[in-house]
Amino acid sequence: MTWSNNTNPPTNPPKDTLKVVDIEEVTIYASPKENRKLRQQPLSVSLLSQRDMQTNRINSLKGLSYLVPNLFIPDYGSKLTSSIYIRGIGSRINSSAIGVYVDNVPMYDKSAFDFDYADIDRIDVLRGPQGTLFGRNSMGGLINIHTKSPFNYSGTDLMLSAASHNSYRTSLTHYHRISNQFAFSAGGFFDHEGGFFTNNYNGKKIDRGNSAGGRMHALYLPCDNWKLDLNVNYEYSDLGGYPYGAYNKTTNTYTQPNYNFKSGYYRNLLNVGLTSIYTAKNFILTEVTAYQHLRDRMALDQDFSPADMYTMLQKQKQNTLSEEISFKSKEGKRWQWTTGTSFFYQWLTNNAPINFGKDFISMMQSMMDAAMKSSPAKVTLTDNGMEIPGLFKMPTYGFAFFHQSTYNNIFNIEGLSATVGLRLDYEKMKINYDTSAKMNYTLSMMGRTSSNSYAVRYFGNQNNDYTQLLPKFALKYDLNKNSNIYAQVSRGYRSGGYNVQMLSDYLENALQKNAGDVENDATINAAMRYKPEYSWNYETGTHLTMFGGVLWTDLSAFYMNTRNQQVARFADSGLGRYTANAGKSRSYGMELSTRANITNKWSVDLNYGYTYATFTKYDSNTKTGTAVDYSGKYIPFAPKHTLNVGTQYVFHFNESSVIKDLTLHADYSGAGRIYFTEANDVSQKFYGLLNARLSARFGKALQLDVWGRNILDKDYAVFYFDSGSNGFMQKGNPVQCGVDLRLRF
User: Fold this and answer.
1) Which is nearest to 637 in space by CA: 54, 84, 232, 110?
2) DSSP state letters, 366-402
């Protein structure tokens, strides 16, 4: 959490209790763009405290699934595939539809979303388009992550964890307040996953892996009205993947993963952010400078079979520099405003070669033999394999200007406020591509043999720019100090971009024609591009805090129209995925969050979301030569229902007891129905997972937790995709139990 710019933080912040309060009240609130606490604003929001994260063992982004209404983050693949869906809006590949900020610093690539949460203090999830203040790729919502402040925490935190499936985890962080002007924290973590799924091909775990890293956080107050906040975070990951098993949707039969190529994901991630906050007499100035470096490598068996058909080795290198300057009025004014500008520049190099193995060459040879059976000539392929190299350089930059005003007590009606905002967003995207293929062969005819080759190379460059206007209109009425009702209309968008994997299909077809060098082919350039996605969101809701904070309820309803819907498709050949625009879609639904303290020892939480998301117009999709139309079909990966019901009971003991208190927590979390394909021919019906935790606190320093996830060992699917004529599925994690030891000194 953060604190105000001109007030020293409390030396003894309130401790976690069962009393249900607005978590924004337990510390002084500050944000570069917000003039009021989030639940006092006209938007749908969920606030997760440190207690919520410990109770539900949220160690990464994927742990937020089910806890927030209409938020779904399927745990499949690896840290490369951090796909987030809110209200049916999301993205499996390319740019994200959900924004992620860490200590006011934007994460521009979703490959950087999934990092360790060892030092996280609080998470805010804003649903619906947030483009007016936060810009590109936040059309579905925004996740704001806050790390612990060394001014609010002191001492050392040690956590040790061991769990079934050979999983181990440890983290150590020290917080030190040197003076009223300077404080810092430093820490690190190590995480080992033994893996849940076995590859039948070699009998080894597919998804085992290791992650390690650390964070340094420093706060400095040069004077009473100026604060400097530096965050440096580094993380290394070397993970296995991917546990995809064959699935026959006709017979509804699933086969355990069985493929020959060792797949996995490796990532180096560095984030550096410097925030400067200056408090003047009538406004607050915030400047955020950030740098992100990401270097990763994904190895993938494209056919997921024991045959040596085709594989991919994708390497990315990304550097992003961003700058944002914002001004906002102080709290308590009748006219509250925020205005500012932002800029970013991203250098991205993608090296994505596809390798065809000996079994693919044999298949091609058989096809050629059959086609030339009656011919006097014979063609013999002489290579044991074929590599299709692909080098793509994609620089992107953009800038924006934004303003939002809220006028309180309009028409002299106490508690009635209106909010109007507008953002001008400009983005320039470029691509320079160079990919080729070559196949050697011998031609035998009439006793003569000659050596030849088929060759093709596609290379070129193109650029596109997009200018967006992102307005927002809202009305809110305060029922009292802690409760309100609201209505809002807002527009969001997701960036367009370029597909790079799909070029292998064009190369395969052009190879047979021995096309040679082709520069800036118009058909290729058009096929590589996909357009931005736009949406209008209409929403109404209420935030209610009743009975002195004992009962806290948020309720919202929404309706969203989306144009140029971006969907992920597998190429007809199965040689990769690409993004395409699929006409229009519509989604509507509601969200309910309730937290209640029934007694001083017993609390109950309920989070429920309903989303009905369908394509209203789906542009013709050519697949195996046949035009198909998916209008009226449900949008993939948009669960109709998300649910989390939790309860917690605390047993308190006297001061002389070794155990100071014992906490029992249980929750039931689920989602469904979830459709995995645009044709809606494969889906996962609603499923629920039972989780539990028993926590014992020994004095003020030691805490021991025994926990279990998916205790009933529910069998369910988290992912399915079509690849050529085959289908593949990943199952959800089975039952897992473990022990956590926390020590504070």
Assistant:
1) 84
2) HHHHHHTTTSS-EEEE--S-EEE-EEEE--EEEEEEE
Note the pTM of the prediction, 2 decimals: 0.90
Which candidate, 574, 587, 718, 567, places its Cα nearest to that of 628? 567
Cis peptide before 242 (omega within 30 of 0): yes
* Spatial distance between the Cα atoms of 427 and 377, rounded to a whole number of angstroms: 55
What proportion of the chain, given as a percentage, has pLDDT over 70?
Answer: 92
The Cα–Cα gap between 705 and 699 comes to: 14
User: Which two tokens mark 613?
Assistant: 């998301």
d(CA 447, CA 13): 90
Q: What phi and psi values does residue 53 have, to the nearest 5 degrees?
A: -70, -40
Q: Taking 60 as the threshold, does the pLDDT of residue 254 lie above it?
A: yes
Amino acid at 712: L
548-599 residue pLDDT tens = 889 999 999 999 999 988 877 666 555 556 777 877 899 999 999 999 999 9
Partnered with residue 323 across adjacent β-strands are 289, 343
Q: Are 348 and 395 in contact, with CB atoms under 8 Å apart?
A: yes
pLDDT value for 549: 84
- Measure the CA–CA gap between 561 and 141, rounded to whole angstroms: 15
Three-state SS at 160: strand
* Neighbour count for residue 288 (Cβ, 10 Å): 23
